[in-house]
Amino acid sequence: MKRSHLLHLPIFGEVDVLVVGASSGAVAAALEIRRQNRTALVVSELSYFGEESAGTLNLWLPDLDYTDDLIGAMFQGNSGDLVRPAMLKRALESALLQASVQFLYRVRPVALLRNDAGKLIGMIIAARTSMFVVRCSAVIDASRYGVVARLNGAVMKKRHEIPKTLSWNVLSRGVPAGWEDHAEELPLPVRQNLTHGEADYCTYRLRIDRLTLGQDPFSFEHFVRASLLAPNLLVTADIIPDVPAEFCDTSDLLSDNPENLCDGSFAVSPDVFLMNGLLPLTLIGVDLLERSDVQVALGRRVGALAVEALRNSRFSASGAINVFTGGGCDGDFRFAPAFLRHADKLLEISPMAFPLLGCCDVVVAGGGTGGAPAAISAARAGTKTVLLESQHGLGGVGTLGLITGYWYGNKVGFTHELDAAVKQIDLDYGNGKSSHWRPEIKACVYHHMLRDAGGTAWLGSYAFGVRISGNQVDGVLVSTPLGCGLLEAGCVVDATGNADIAAAAGAPCRVIGADHLATQGTGLSPRPAPGIRCYNSDWTFVDETDPVGITAAFVSSRAKFTGAFDTSPLVNSRERRQIIGDYEVSPLDILAQRTFPDTVFTACSNFDTHGFIVHPVFMVAEPDHHSSLHAHVPFRCMLPLGIEGVIVTGLGMSAHRDALPVLRMQADVQNQGFAAGLAAAWSSKGSKRLRDLDIRVLQHRLAEAGILSADVPRHEDSFPLGENAIREAAAGNLKTAMNAAILFAYPAQCCPILIKVLQNGADERRIDAALILGLTGHREPAQVLADTVRGRDWDEGWNYRGMGQFGASMSRLDALILALARTREPVAVDVIEIKIRKLKENPMFSHCRVVAIAAMLLQNTRLNLALCELLLQPGIQGHALCELRTMIDEATADPIETETRNSSLRELYLARGLYLAGDVDGFGRSILEVYTQDLRGHYARFAQAVLEKVITNDSLSDMA
């Protein structure tokens, strides 16, 4: 096996102490370190802190000391009320912000770094499939199962006593059905009434027999969740507390209370400190760690011990860097590039080896809308299947994301089967009472179906890299709550929605910000009450590869929705990183109703764009709000170019970003996931490349499952179209979507026809022809376009809108100006300069967007000066958000907020236009430099790409 090459990892930052964990104790430790004038960074594998309270739904403790500042903030100093999880989470992150302690969510350490003298110099942190380094001199391991202690090689002893039962807290309307003999109602002081017409609820502690869970420690949570199919279930705790099967050998005696441990019990080495269930504690002592007051006291004590160790440590020369991962398997490991705002410092890391966690036929990375169906499908096909999901539940956007209803989508095949299974439990769904399913119920149905198919899910786990042999991926590196290692696989389904596996393998990808700034809006919804069925939102942009931006989004969500019971643990981004596949689905394919010989599912939707379009066809023919379109999606768009052993589902597939609104509906992604899982299973079982599968056999099986209609296996490619079809399109209404799509699909053939229209057609038809010719870069229509633009005043234009955006996202005049600029004829300069100078106070985004692009294309000093004056108008500048406190202070309760995004987009487009057009005294550059630090990752990445001239005036073929 080829060894991995040297890695050059970016350095995120340098602190005295790195604190690892999601508990309130981790927060308390960091606050104590800061109080003693040392620096700390806290990293949580969850999207919050308060694992032992908000994470376990331990929402009320009657005997807490509310005079303690941190406990008082968490529980609001009132022992008479059930505390909302969102309030606990916000209190802990607010305490860190007030103390100027930085923190990151959704990341986990995977390696420890020491120099030749044994001195700790840092840790490697994994976020999705990218990694970065945190330089530090000490680490506090507050993770639930001691991931750092294990990396450090701590000596362990087996526990002689393990509880026979586990406890799991849930919220339910009455005892969860089927658990009547295994549930205890917790004696809370208040029974809160839900809003939205729901009945009241209670908290129950379910007792689970450990013997029913099997021996696999990675999948016990999956089997617990698969056993809970209760129609009255509302919310389940993320965390099912368990006692580690071992503890660190730091003492001969086990204590009933962490307070009674000597200081030496917390140090597994001079620079690694422990504060979790690996401490030498009895079962009684471990159980105390589920109390917030015990966590906070422990955190302060261990934080002080870490600072004391720093005072006593001696300087040691750096020397070579040694990487500690637990050892084991080596190979050619690959990782996706990390995105950091300060990535100028790199650390060279030697090749790594990782423990072998297991072997399987199919790994499915991501258990969301496409991943859960893929795993069920692969397991049903008789393969050993492991599903990796970073959250504590399956279903993604349709469960944890709270978008629990279908907008459009082809509700056939597996989707029909899944809906029927949900309706059997959720009796109000689909029978006229509600068009939305209960999120917890659908998540449990997924678990149940996967278990019954013979598959398994590792929750709280995600792939952070791949092993590759040649161009074949044969395993994934997995970060789990129990540690990290290699999971070997015959085939991998990349259902991350972000093309994480493909990107790690080195497949070419398109990244929002690096390629363009047009992206669909992101939601991160509140859960106003436990019984809420659905809450859709669209209020920000989040780059799924950006740990800082993800953290900021979660903090902002809790600042926005202060009265909510909780907030979603899932970022509902509607557009992410995409592979460049063997084929890319185009909007032209959809509008022209193209058929393919390798279709594997047929999507159905209108153009629910959640933002603005970039493809020129929509600048001629507006996307239709009311009509649904059927789009055949070929197998080839799921195969990353140049990579074997990986098939990509969902948002990560190869499709033009303006095709995604039709392809991304939940009902369709579920069917696509099922098809991907079946293909992966057949590839693994038959030891065949995915590209070598008999596509007709696969299509017939999908037709039997109801995913494809019976005629699809007989389809051939309907392109190229004949000359008659092209002539008919040119002779028809040029604003019609079908005609416009055909003309843009065949620009060389249609150009002579349109030039004749330009010369001899009626006035409006001449303008339509000029628009298409100009947008496709022809010079001939320049004068017609110039005369038309000169004779029209600015129209209404378009400001950014996400939720509910249908139709055009630029005006007719905007499109004409863009077409004129793309002719690159000198006559365009005078006309467009006049138009820029007529833009007055608070101009519409679409107007600013097109004049900025025009300036880049035409490269004229007069246009630069005009853009400069526009940027100097009141209210145009100053909309970057680079401080988390500023984001919190400016947060509103609007779940479909648009103005913040509109202002930033307008400023960024104008600054890019000015900079790439030649700039004026570095004005455009100065604005872009500020945005490189914006907490919204797409903006920061975009500004960096422009400054590095990755995005240039020659890379505007998609009119972005």
Key descriptive features of the protein:
single chain; 960 residues; alpha/beta; FAD/NAD(P)-binding domain; 4 domains; eight-stranded mixed β-sheet; six-stranded mixed β-sheet; 29 helices; 34 strands; 33% helix; globular
Uncertain stretches of 5 or more adjacent residues: 193-199
CATH superfamily of the largest domain: FAD/NAD(P)-binding domain
Rg for CA atoms: 29 Å
Average pLDDT, rounded to a whole number, is 93
Strand elements, count: 34
Major beta-sheet overview: 8 strands, mixed
Proportion of residues in helical segments: 25-40%
Q: Indicate the CATH topology of the largest domain.
A: FAD/NAD(P)-binding domain
Kindly provide the name of the CATH class of the largest domain.
Answer: Alpha Beta
Rounded to the nearest angstrom, the distance between the terminal CA atoms is 44 Å
Shape, please?
Answer: globular
Number of folding domains? 4
What portion of the residues fall into strands of 2 or more residues? 15-25%
- The count of helical stretches stands at 29
Report the CATH architecture of the largest domain.
3-Layer(bba) Sandwich
Helix-strand makeup class: alpha/beta
Please summarize what this structure is.
This protein is α/β, with parallel strands linked by helices and 960 residues long.
Report what the structure shows.
The protein is α/β, with parallel strands linked by helices and 960 residues long. The chain folds into 4 domains: 8-157 and 244-324, FAD/NAD(P)-binding domain; 165-236, no CATH class; 328-335 and 353-512 and 574-719, FAD/NAD(P)-binding domain (3-Layer(bba) Sandwich); 750-947, Leucine-rich Repeat Variant, CATH 1.25.10. Helices cover 33% and strands 18% of the residues. The chain contains 29 helices and 34 strands. The strands form 9 sheets. Strands 18, 20, 21, 22, 23, 24, 25 and 34 form an 8-stranded mixed sheet that branches. A 6-stranded mixed sheet has the order 17-5-6-7-1-19. Strand 6 (120-127) and strand 7 (130-135) form a beta hairpin. The longest helix has 21 residues, at 292-312. The protein is globular and about 95 Å long. The model is unreliable at 193-199 (pLDDT under 50).
